[in-house]
Hints:
9-stranded mixed sheet; 10 helices; globular
Amino acid sequence: MKFSIVTPVYNGEKYISETIESVLSQKGDFEIEYIVVDGKSTDGTLEIIKRYNHLLQSNEYKIKCNNISFKFISEKDKGMYSAINNGFSMATGDVYAWINSDDIYLPDAFQTITETLKKYPEINWVKGTTLISNEKLDTIKASPCYVFNQNWIQKGVYGRNTYFIHQDSVFWKKELWSKVSKINEKFKLAGDYYLWTEFAKYSPLWSINKPVSRFRKRATQLSEDMVGYRKEQGEINPEQKDLLTFKIKLFFWLKTKTPAFLEPTFLFLYRLLFWERNRYYINIENGEHIKRKARSYLA
């Protein structure tokens, strides 16, 4: 299996080394094609990228997987999603993902995805869990292992009426990307939301109950502009004023107001409101035993 990983970056010298290291240090039975797309940075970002390229080309960097190919470009682009599209246009792998230049993959992330996709080849896109961290990468909280309704993803429910699909922990097969072809570059903030709604037209999103990435919360990052994000969400998928949307909003609003010990009551209410059975997810026991299990909407 070959991973094609893209990192878009612009003036990211503060954290880019940690991001690159988190990709190159992955250990397991797979290949990595790492594509870094720099938007003509004016700080030391490009020098850092070139240093890693030199270390790999000279065999000074000890790789822990079957093979690593490292590609980079540095040119003006039209924003983050333009850079991501440019990166994937160069990709030749079987499994795609992108990691932003201030986030990191956790050790064994790629091996976890490899083993899962080998055991369950019908899966076209999959999501591990995310650790939410501060700027120093101290864990603030661990995201639960949510399960996702394919129809709700298409309707744009996740990230608007309920929990987000964290991009840094999502991986998908090349064939699924080919059906969408690229992210619409008119969107500067919600391109991931656009991509998920497109993917869900073709395939369900599976979840794995294991952390595979860290999302670094920091000031001035694009994800902090929720007003702009909400505006783009409305353009991608206008919120529908139907009974299902009303019930979803009501349920998750009530859940935020209710103590955790009433969780069993909410599971009953969930099934009553939506007539949903448990959905499958991937459970990893003792760090290695991969099994398919079923449960309701969240951990």
